[in-house]
Amino acid sequence: MPRAKNKAASHRSRRKFIKLAKGYWGARSKVWTIAKHHIEKGLLHAYRDRRLKKRAFRSLWIVRINAAARQEGTTYSRLMNDLKKQNIAINRKVLADLAMNHPAVFAAIVRKVAG
């Protein structure tokens, strides 16, 4: 007697992968084995790059804070050290936003911690 392969579940799984491959070019969206390979690879890159995005944004915030701090006569490292010494807990995301969109507020913070 032949082995049962659960065709319904296999078909459902394949349909799901082909649906994920929608928009891929050529055989990547049509052929099961090729689509499966490229979907898995795409999901792997998505997982990795969600973590790399956090790294990239943090470095962007640091560059922005440093540029604004230098306009105020200090550096990024001195500013962050002074903030820690004064126990002022403002994260880099907020500081970068203040530096870009509200330079007067950022300048006031720099004067407060430096003075």
Q: What does this entry show, briefly?
A:
The chain is mainly α and 115 residues long. The chain has 5 helices and no strands.
> What fraction of residues sit in β-strands?
under 5%
Question: How far apart, in Å, are the first and last alpha carbons?
Answer: 86 Å
The name of the CATH architecture is Orthogonal Bundle
Poorly predicted regions are none
Which structural class should the secondary elements be placed in? mainly alpha
How many structural domains does the protein architecture include? 1
Q: SSE string, helix = H, strand = E?
A: HHHHH
Name of the level-1 CATH class: Mainly Alpha
Task: Find the CATH topology.
Answer: c-terminal domain of poly(a) binding protein
Number of discrete helical segments = 5
Name the CATH homologous superfamily: Ribosomal protein L20, C-terminal domain
